Amino acid sequence: MTVSAPTPAAAVPESLLDRAARGERLDAAEIEALYHLPLPEVAAVAHGLRLARRDPEQVSFLIDRNINYTNICNVGCNFCAFYRTRRQADSYVLDYEHISQKIRELEAVGGTRILLQGGVNPELPLEYYTGLLRHVKTHHPTIRIDAFSPEEVLFMEKAFGMSLDELLDTLIAAGLDGLPGAGGEILEDDVRAKAAPARIRSADWFRIIDAAQRKGLYTISTMVIGFGETYAQRARHLLKIREQQDRANALYGGNGFSGFAMWTLQTEHTRLHGKAPGATAHEYLQQLAVARIALDNVPNIQASWPAQGFKVAQASLYYGANDLGSTMLEENVVSAAGGHQRVQAQVRELVRIAVDAGFTPVIRNSRFEIIERPDVAALLGRDAANPEAERAVGAGA
Ligand code: SF4
């Protein structure tokens, strides 16, 4: 009897998700392919990467306040329900004392950062901005100021006839700590041109962010889905953020984006209402998981409770997110377009979201450094020895 040699088993090609789970870098086509895979499998890989890249026990958040110093804006984005023209009765510019009052309220609840942003108001002189930064630094020295989106910076460059370097140096000298990466939306110009013809284009957004990172400012990357953009456009958006992060890591001593924040388009009271598809909770969670996999060099991925509500934000902690954003003592822009009813969160509420999902909540600053470990038993009214014995959640301020 002749015995034939065993046929070698055909090698099983390694799947895209296996490679992603090993932390291998994916290209644009591979990132796009993730959107077509079953979400539970993509989420499992994203969560595994989150556990490996950040403290697996902890979920962080920040105590802060958004202060919108003016709602007058001449950009007129189709998706914005916040802006007003100068002649509208409810248009405003906040004076410094009004802003101080808001900051005192933030200080009273232990806040450490303000996000200071507004419309593009052609009537404000450079001295308004520099005076405001100096006022905040003088009267509220413990508060970090992350201010002026790339759109506002672009306006200042043109209006005040300054080079970008000169302008940023002036703002930094007056007290600027960081430049929020608002206005990222989808960083593909054909999407931007339809949603907001006069909106800052992607090249300018990256030019301004790059200069801010070079100068040591805090920055964060952002994304908004639901304009009707394709998966390929979403994948390219993520890739551009990853490339900028590589650049900042190589050239600016690692001062790249400290995190990635993503939310879904809200269109109530805007010209896009009924014209843009928006995005469901499933799409939101899918995008979050894809972002965690694609952005292998961005450490922190935030969940968005203002757009998605607390319950989806909590689920996000198993789709790649390691951070709950901030308490946001005040938010006016997303909520004007129909955000998820809630415009602020109590510390206790974010603590409960983290604890009930199985994590330890920690309070951070805007650079994602831990500054406090909240007393869970005291905040939730639970007996530390018997965490199931909840006594007073929902009671009190
Ligand atoms: S999103 Fe910003 S730039 Fe656009 S209209 Fe609203 S306030 Fe102006």
TrEMBL record:
Entry keyword Ribonucleoprotein: no
Biochemical pathway: Quinol/quinone metabolism; menaquinone biosynthesis
Keyword Oxidoreductase annotated: yes
Pfam families: CofH_C, Radical_SAM
Annotated cofactor note: Binds 1 [4Fe-4S] cluster. The cluster is coordinated with 3 cysteines and an exchangeable S-adenosyl-L-methionine.
EC numbers for this chain: 1.21.98.1
Catalytic activity annotation: dehypoxanthine futalosine + S-adenosyl-L-methionine = cyclic dehypoxanthinylfutalosinate + 5'-deoxyadenosine + L-methionine + H(+)
Keywords on record: 4Fe-4S, Iron, Iron-sulfur, Menaquinone biosynthesis, Metal-binding, Oxidoreductase, S-adenosyl-L-methionine
Swiss-Prot/TrEMBL cofactor(s): [4Fe-4S] cluster
Record: residues binding [4Fe-4S] cluster: C73, C77, C80
Top EC group: oxidoreductase
PROSITE patterns in alphabetical order: RADICAL_SAM (PS51918)
Radical SAM core domain ranges (all copies): 59-311
Molecular function terms, GO-annotated: oxidoreductase activity
Function text: Radical SAM enzyme that catalyzes the cyclization of dehypoxanthine futalosine (DHFL) into cyclic dehypoxanthine futalosine (CDHFL), a step in the biosynthesis of menaquinone (MK, vitamin K2).
Family per record: Belongs to the radical SAM superfamily. MqnC family.
Protein name: Cyclic dehypoxanthine futalosine synthase
